[in-house]
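Researcher: Go.
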Amino acid sequence: MITIGVGRIGYELRQYFRQPEAVFFTFLFPIVMLALFSVAFSASPDIHVGPNGPGVTFSTDYLPGLVATGAFLSGTQALGVDIATERGDGTLKRLGGTPLPVLSYFVGKIGMVLVTAVVQTVLLLAVATVVFHVTLPTSGSAIASGIGLLVLGIATSCVLGIAVSSLPRDGKRATAVIVPIVLVLQFISGVYLPFTQLPAWLQNLASIFPLRWLASGMRSVLLPDAFHVAEPGDAWHVGEGSLILFAWFVAGLALCALTFRWNKKDT
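Model: Structure:
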């Protein structure tokens, strides 16, 4: 089953890159947003924490949230819309009538997300460093923490994407149902707006969801440590955030088992 699934990764990648809207709104979206914010605020002074604290450019400040957003878009949005569309156009029903195991189908889908998310992150970091002169961390602990958080974030976004694919009543509504959810989470999770500037009730609401913790985790890796004072409670809360991400991963697995069907009408 695993071998068949690995063989499907190439097929899924070809299908993904044949969809211009998917490529732009998931694969290229964080890179485009980084370029827009960097150019828009290029004449602005650096962002500082405290009168004598270190400063970073707007490019550096936005980068962590966009890395987190890229992982979230690749899994939750792209996978959710993709599976819902395949269910709506009858692809899943046809696959359900073949010997293809469910596990092999998901290995192909998740493998596609893993490849696209990793390539996207590498390109985003490359653009940030080469074009906008962002300095990336070089310590082994920071790199290991960043990789661990990214893998956990991708895994969580994948299972949530499979789970939310059951929300649209038909494939034609998949984008209209799933994209607004992901967009709202971006704005309340500290991706585009400083998280602590949001109302307390909105911070509490956002803290229920995984993107807020993935974004703050990436800030702990990519921003100077002194910037922890700009976080709620003056701390990164990486351990707490990792536990919440893992809890969402487990919950997502349970939701996948409960909701996924080859056909929407299956019982």
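Model: The longest strand covers residues 47-48.
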